[in-house]
Input
Amino acid sequence: MSSLYTAEALATGAGRAGHVRTSDGIVDTDLAIPKELGGEGGAANPELLFAAGYAACFHSALQTVARREKADLGESSVGALVGIGPNGNGGFALEVTLEVVIPGLDLEAAQRLAEMAHQVCPYSNATRGNIAVTLDVVED
Output
């Protein structure tokens, strides 16, 4: 593969309770372990950052597919829920639910576009076969 863009970030400090900064300084934030995982909460964490990235990337893929299919997405949105839990082998695993809303489009057509976007999205391609990803297309 020939990369068109490379993002660069550095984590320092105490990992999940440390700090992350991108090489361009656009992301520069402290991290905190979520209360649900026994931490203090109150700051970003890797799952939040992953959810934000996946939601934005998938929405972009959905827009790409819609343009190709000449479909009107209107005020569409994509939400990402990223869960973390034990994997049964002493480690942890992620699971993702993508909530896709396309107002004014019938559910069957919206589902078709979401499934097509799932084949285009780099996050979907990176996670396929590695973590459970559920597409939840809902009516507005």
Q: What stands out?
A: The two ends are 38 Å apart (CA to CA). The chain has three helices and six strands. Residues 99 and 110 are 11 Å apart (CA to CA). Residues 46-138 form a domain with the GMP Synthetase; Chain A, domain 3 fold (CATH 3.30.300.20).
